[in-house]
Specification:
Elements (H helix, E strand, L loop, with lengths): L1 H13 L8 E2 L7 E2 L4 E2 L5 E5 L2 E9 L4 H11 L6 E4 L2 E4 L2 E7 L4 E8 L3
Antiparallel strand pairs: 1-2, 3-5, 4-5, 5-9, 6-7, 7-8, 8-9
């Protein structure tokens, strides 16, 4: 019993500090938004098809793309997403691609895995 309590305490202490401060997208409720990131919900495109959902969402952040990718490489796997390549994750039958443009805009694109 003591061993289990010690293991539980270790898990709690190892939890990321930012976990309590994480907010989620209003368009993709299972997508955490990095601290300081502002979702552009009015610009989002969402299609729900029989073959899966297609979503294009943007967010503005002053963080460097490398820091944004590091955040998602850490936060997405516990949500079931597996990294395939830098900025590309898969979960069940969906693919999530995170990309950037030169205006501090992060693009999140979800499509069926085979698309």
């Amino acid at each position: 019993m003591k061993k289990i309590m010690i293991m539980a305490l270790c898990v709690l202490l190892a939890s990321p500090v930012y976990a309590a401060d994480v907010t989620y997208s209003t368009i993709l409720p299972d997508l955490p938004l990095m601290h300081g990131m502002t979702e552009q919900a009015n610009d989002a495109v969402v299609f729900d098809k029989a073959s899966g959902r297609i979503v294009d969402l943007t967010a503005i952040s002053s963080a460097a793309p490398a820091d944004i990718l590091a955040f998602y490489q850490k936060t997405l796997p516990p949500l079931g997403w597996q990294m395939q390549a830098s900025g590309t994750f898969v979960r069940e039958q969906e693919k999530l691609v995170i990309s950037f443009d030169s205006n501090n805009i992060t693009h999140f694109s979800i499509s069926p895995k085979g698309a």
